[in-house]
Specification:
By secondary structure, the protein is of the alpha/beta class. Helices cover 36% and strands 16% of the residues. The strands form three sheets. An eight-stranded parallel beta barrel has the order 3-4-7-8-9-10-12-13. Strands 5-6-11 form a three-stranded antiparallel β-sheet, with no helix packed on it. β5 and β6 form a beta hairpin.
């Protein structure tokens, strides 16, 4: 059905189309796509000690204001990450700020952490009981004088409501945010977060979301910092502000973060490099170009224990989880495995 209406949706401005999708999910205008294989043992796993039906998550950026996470669970997602959320409400960057590159199956966005602010969003979450595992992705306000303090403010607000919290240090759309990839700055940030967790007497798992554009030396340094702190997971990776050479769409040089198929291989290679360094001590959530069973399969082989997507749903529709599971199931059955986790990290020469 989605393939029939996609051409109509794609006539809309991308941000308008996204807002329409959120409203459709919020008011149940999207048909309830029930997962017929919800209890398939091939996909069952745990995320930070909690059972999930499958390892396919919705990435941050889709449900920025925590409006439709339960609708996303109903679409089959094993877990959902909302945000990025900042302490104070902010509009983000001027429009237009989202660009659809149809020939490349990609998006470029320079939204700039547009959201309703932490206090407004926590009220939404508290009034809408979650029916699945919910991650909250947090970041600093654009004009903040103390970005570390912004992360701590969000941690205080969400630690009791979320199942895990993701520290976003990697958006290309907030100026100088990626400076937190610096070994010393990242270590100082994570130490401050750990101290605040102790003050709150909180056991909330902390995840760090990294850029796909980091260099080889940075991978080693970041891995060392993650391993020396109490970090449960790493999201590999965010959108890219490079990787434009092979694109065909005329909008390929728009400023912002590139997502979708063009960064699939880049993120998969990065996942494998982190996997070799982290040695299973920190779980990897693989993101970038996931839109099929095969793309999910490659992420698991590279070392991801879970995957997330967003752009894939833009191009393949709201039944994307069922599509991926159906295709992935065929690949896993060929391998003769009883659970997808048996293939994690098996391709170590990426």
């Amino acid at each position: 059905m989605f393939s029939n209406i996609r051409s109509l949706i794609f006539k809309l401005d991308p941000e308008t189309a996204h807002n329409l999708a959120i409203k459709s999910l919020k008011f149940n205008f999207v048909p309830n796509i029930l997962d017929k294989n919800k209890d398939d043992p091939l996909f069952k796993t745990e995320l930070f000690g909690k059972h999930i039906e499958n390892p396919i998550g919705m990435a941050a950026g889709f449900d920025k204001n925590a409006e439709v996470y339960n609708s996303l669970f109903n679409l089959g997602f094993g877990f959902v990450e909302v945000g990025t959320i900042t302490p104070l409400k902010q509009y983000g960057n001027p429009k237009p700020r989202v660009f659809r590159l149809v020939e490349d199956e990609a998006l470029i966005n320079r939204l700039g952490f547009n959201n309703l602010g932490a206090e407004n969003i926590i009220r939404k979450i508290n009034s809408n009981k979650k029916i699945g595992i919910l991650g909250v992705n947090i970041g600093p306000n654009k004009d903040s004088e103390n970005r570390t303090e912004d992360y701590l403010k969000c941690l205080k607000i969400f630690h009791n409501a979320a199942d895990y919290i993701t520290i976003n240090i990697s958006s290309p759309n907030t100026e100088n945010l990626r400076k937190f990839h610096n070994q010393e700055q990242l270590n100082n940030l994570l130490k401050a977060i750990e101290k605040e967790k102790k003050n709150l007497n909180s056991k909330i798992p902390i995840v760090v979301k990294v850029s796909p554009d980091i260099h080889k030396d940075e991978i080693n340094e970041i891995s060392q910092v993650l391993l020396s702190n109490d970090i449960s997971g790493v999201v590999v990776s965010n959108t890219s502000d490079s990787t434009r050479e092979s694109l065909t769409n005329i909008q390929k040089y728009q400023k912002g973060g590139l997502s979708g198929k063009p960064i699939e291989t880049k993120s998969t290679i990065l996942i494998n490099k982190f996997y070799k360094l982290l040695k299973g001590k920190i779980k990897i959530i693989g993101v970038g170009g996931v839109d099929s069973g095969e793309s999910a399969y490659e992420k698991f082989l590279a070392g991801a224990s879970y995957i997330q997507l967003y752009t894939g749903m833009v191009y393949r529709g709201p039944n994307i989880v069922s599509i991926i599971k159906k295709e992935l199931r065929e690949l896993l059955l060929k391998d003769g495995v009883k659970n997808f986790s048996e293939i994690i990290g098996k391709k170590t020469n990426t």
